[in-house]
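Narrative of activities, Objective 1.

The group set out to show that a structural description can be obtained from nothing but a protein's sequence at a throughput compatible with the screening campaign. Below is one input-output pair from the validation batch, recorded exactly as produced.
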Amino acid sequence: LEQEQELVNDVRLLLVAAAVRNRLSLDDIVDYYDLSKTECIRYLARLDKLRIIDLLPGNRIKLRIDEAFHWLPDGPIERFFEKQVQGQFLRSSFKGEAESRLFLFGLMGEASTRILIGRIRALARDFTELHRTESRLPLRTRKSVGLMVAIRPWEFEAFRPLLRRRENS
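Output recorded for this entry:
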């Protein structure tokens, strides 16, 4: 909780944390972002103190977090994401060359819903593996990419007043 709170309290620290999570080196970070080398090393030292990375000799970076880690449910990072990132990410027409949005809805049983959740988790594993593989490519050949796939029980809010009350609901 304290780690997450410290990250969301300092946007530059959060930026450096995201950069090292994306396997950028110190040189990559200072080349890509408006941070001096000294400033970046200070943030890396804070991440080391928070036990998110090990700052090694020569300012090399070793991630201490597993690629499959998750933020705390309803923790500071998740709330930051919901408040700051999610809306911004969805404010797009998704019509660009490297963009796609698909929204489907329908009535499904529990078994089918579980199958889809399993496929979403498999897609997340694929994303993580591709991210790991691509981290070996030069930074100039990569672009920051966001992927959001979600599934949940959902009813269009405008339809709710029109729903007939069921006895077993």
